[in-house]
């Protein structure tokens, strides 16, 4: 999840407040078993979004069972003794809603978008699979094959997917961000149903989960339903995670991936801070602004200079994900035009940062970036699902949804000088990992 998209997306709330349109704050409480519940009332339409987030992702896995968090996500749809396989999804579909799930490095989440009057039913079914999931060998064998095929489709058969996987494996040595969320293929091939069951028993507990409800609901009624269905589930002893600190990098790392592709690609990843302390981590906000100056709107610096003016690249981009439980990367990437090497494009991407480090950005550019981001995110934040996602991400990464307003203030206070300072501070080769895609002949093309 990109913090600059989340945080700047939230900035439009401040715009509303300044114009007299006050949004009701979310309400939060804990059940006796330790489960946290956050409710955001939004009465514009008779619908609700119900999400259950578990603070367990691929970073909590160990060598030999990588990918198990995602495999368990698949198993969560195989049913319980009370509600057989497919019951939840079929129920949601009959109600005219939709449901799904997703696994991340830091968390796993399950959601339903349903009419408001159906909230209690999906809450009952979600609570049931939190504690009564069944693990049948035949179901596991089916799903592990699905996951392996998903890995082939998303990574093994996708040049960009291979590059991203190689980049992270090179950038992180000790931290579990080293391995992919979907897992290494060999681990998937040797995984057992007991591995999935053990993961479920270890992490899937009310005291390791947060429920988020956004929509045309009453927070008091949501609390009653949460207590009725989730409150009776016993908590588990959740082991404290051991520190997994990435060693200090002392020099540029390089990795090349050969794969069938039409165009080469170069990706530069710099180690930068993640958000830990809302008050103290000032550089995080300036890095967000820097990423947006580079690639936050149609005429941002990278595309304006490298694609339109100099025609050195077919496409370029910048990304910064600071809302994470683990270390963060600031990524620059580009596909060079014919006749331009990846080495030349790498130097030009670096120079774009160097120019900001040397000359900074203007106050006018900074304000234009902020206002464009505010206006572009109004529609997104108008979505109930978008609100639920933002709340969940902030909760899972330890910041908490109550800090959103303060983060908006911090972003609004970023100065051109701060952007220039972070451009000078973090972009040296000592913290850099470079991954390049080396195209080989496509299978369906004759080799001359």
Automatic annotation (TrEMBL):
Keyword Protease: yes
Signal peptide span: 1-23
GO BP of this protein: proteolysis
Molecular function per GO: metal ion binding; metalloendopeptidase activity
Named cofactor requirement(s): Zn(2+)
Pfam families: Peptidase_M16, Peptidase_M16_C
Domain Peptidase M16 N-terminal: 36-180
Record keywords: Hydrolase, Metal-binding, Metalloprotease, Protease, Signal, Zinc
Domain Peptidase M16 C-terminal: 190-373
InterPro entries xref list: Metalloenz_LuxS/M16, Pept_M16_N, Pept_M16_Zn_BS, Peptidase_M16, Peptidase_M16_C
Coiled-coil spans in chain: none
Family stated for the protein in its record: Belongs to the peptidase M16 family.
The protein's name in its UniProt record: Peptidase M16
Organism: Oxalobacter paraformigenes
